[in-house]
Amino acid sequence: MKKKMINAHGIRKQFHGQNVLSGIDVEVEQGDVLAIIGPSGSGKSTLLRCLNRLEEVDGGWIQIEGDMFVQENDIGEVIYAPKEKSKEIQGRMGMVFQQFNLFPHMTVMGNLLEAPIHVKKQPKEEILPLAEDLLARVGLSDKKDAYPSQLSGGQQQRVAIARALAMQPDIMLFDEPTSALDPELTGEVLHTMRELAEEHMTMVVVTHEMNFAREVANKVLFMADGNVVEAGTPEEIFDHPQRQRTQDFLRNML
Amino acid sequence: MDKILQYLQPMLEGSEVTLEIFLLTFIMVLPIGLLVALGRTAKCRPLQWLLELYIWVMRGTPLMLQLLFVYFALPLAGIKLPDMVAALLSFTLNYTAYFAEIFRAGIQSIGKGQYEAAKMLGMSYSQTMWRIIVPQMVRRVLPPMSNETINLVKDTSLIYILAMNDLLRAARTIVQREFDMTPFVVAAGFYLLMTFVLTWMFKRLEAYFSQYE
Ligand SMILES: Nc1ncnc2c1ncn2[C@@H]1O[C@H](COP(=O)(O)OP(=O)(O)OP(=O)(O)O)[C@@H](O)[C@H]1O
Ligand SMILES: [Mg+2]
């Protein structure tokens, strides 16, 4: 049996008393690519941000690689893993944001080396070959001394992917990685992600790119109004959607 | 011409006092102002209130009054400071408040995406602030800092009332003795020169820090 990378159950989240997630289950095994799709405002980003603790859940539990990240006690209080443990678990997940969020005052190489050197305390000689290899993989070796502002959006997003990979995470989370890009630049980012999937990286991808979800993901989760409406393989969701809500959404997307 | 040369000696000495106060204040205000700004943006409520109160008092009362207080009122309470120390204390306390507000605005202008990226890379709060937020803030605060620094140069003339022989007092002494207005013109020249040099330096710094934008 494959290793469970993410096992989350009954995740609830409110903003200002409004239910944004009302009891979501997520299961991700090693090497899975899970695509999360759904209309705007359905809670996709919030779910992703709950998985990595950029937001804290109001209920439910999350296990990462078998370790308890957050759980609920008998009286319904939410309890996170102790500070150090929680940080360590968070460090197993790399995150790629819609807006890239590169550090603008550092070069491309500086962005990649920052956390390995200052957080993991890896010696520079040790991390440099990996960083160079990562830049080559995203096709940006010649840009290592450039500043983010000198790159196109697609290049910046590829740097952001490389930066997250430089921390050698076990799981990569993507929140609409191509939504801020001009249409002609989405291809290069999706190509990088596709390669990553082929190398069996475990990935959770919030996306509006239905073709990518269909071709690269092996699991799809369709959300609406803070609920999972339907989950299954790409064939099940895209070719044989069972629920009316899913059918309507997909019809509008095509 | 002879006259100007003859005035120059006391006026140079005066401008030394002015420069000294300016430079020492400036050097102290930068780190303290930054710490106050970081305290204002940290998540500790009591600290925030305390610093807010401090900034409110410092910006809400005249610098002249603060100077007089340190110089004349503190000794009544048994705290007698040397002139120079009293002047530096007043200027530093006052200008720290202004610089802290500039730094705070700079820190708050940096989007939350930078904090989230740093957090997901495992960076601690202090690493995030010192390595990610503050370096980006510097570029943005240079223009308002330039203004406030020039204000400080001019405000140093307030120590005039403390009977310290700064540039302005040196000028006035000569004017009163010789019934000649030239020293005022020379003093204006000194202030303008300092302002010019500072403006130029800040422009260079801005250009330097803009290279990545
Ligand atoms: N920090 C926040 N404070 C208050 N409300 C929030 C916050 N973040 C999200 N919400 C609300 O939660 C709901 C779900 O937002 P979320 O961003 O998760 O949706 P989404 O599915 O990612 O949408 P999109 O496709 O537009 O990115 C929305 O109604 C949003 O307004
Ligand atoms: Mg979203």
What is the strand and helix layout of this fold?
The complex is a heterodimer of chains A (254) and B (213).
Chain A lengths: L3 E12 L2 E12 L3 E5 L6 H8 L7 E6 L2 E6 L5 E3 L2 H8 L2 E4 L11 H11 L5 H14 L15 H13 L5 E5 L7 H16 L3 E5 L3 H7 L2 E6 L2 E6 L1 H6 L4 H10 L1
Parallel strand pairs in A: 3-9, 3-10, 7-8, 8-9
Antiparallel strand pairs in A: 1-2, 1-4, 4-5, 5-6, 10-11
Helix pairs in contact in A: 3-4, 3-5, 4-5, 5-6
Chain B lengths: L1 H40 L3 H16 L2 H14 L6 H26 L3 H9 L4 H31 L11 H12 L3 H28 L4
Helix pairs in contact in B: 1-2, 1-4, 1-6, 1-7, 1-8, 2-4, 3-4, 4-6, 5-6, 6-8, 7-8
Bound molecules: adenosine-5'-triphosphate and magnesium ion.
The site of adenosine-5'-triphosphate (ATP) has 10 residues of chain A, from helix 1.
Family (chain B): Belongs to the binding-protein-dependent transport system permease family.
Protein name (chain B): Amino acid ABC transporter permease
GO biological process, one term (chain B): amino acid transport
Folded structure, characterized:
The complex is a heterodimer of chains A (254) and B (213). Chain A is an alpha/beta fold and 254 residues long. Chain A is 37% helix and 28% strand. Chain A is built from nine helices and eleven strands. Chain A has helices at 44-51, 83-90, 108-118, 124-137, 153-165, 183-198, 210-216, 234-239, 244-253, and strands spanning 4-15, 18-29, 33-37, 59-64, 67-72, 78-80, 93-96, 171-175, 202-206, 219-224, 227-232. Chain A has a six-stranded mixed beta sheet, with helices on both faces. Chain A has a five-stranded antiparallel beta sheet with strand order 2-1-4-5-6. In chain A, a hairpin with a 5-residue loop joins strand 5 (67-72) and strand 6. In chain A, helix 3 packs across helix 4, helix 3 packs parallel to helix 5 and helix 5 packs parallel to helix 6 (183-198). Chain A starts with a strand and ends with a helix. The model of chain A has no long low-confidence stretch (mean pLDDT 96). Chain B has 213 residues and is mainly alpha-helical. Chain B has a single domain (2-210), classed as MetI-like (MetI-like fold, Orthogonal Bundle), CATH 1.10.3720.10. In chain B, 83% of the residues lie in helices and 0% in strands. The longest helix of chain B is centred in the first third of the chain and has 40 residues, at 2-41. Chain B is flat, with a radius of gyration of 21 Å. The A-B interface holds A 52, 54, 87, 90-91, 93-95, 97, 99, 101-106, 114-115, 118-120, 147-149, 163-164, 167 and B 113-114, 116-117, 119-123, 127, 131-132, 135-136, 139, 211-213. Bound molecules: adenosine-5'-triphosphate and magnesium ion (MG). Adenosine-5'-triphosphate is lined by residues 15, 20, 38, 40-46 of chain A.
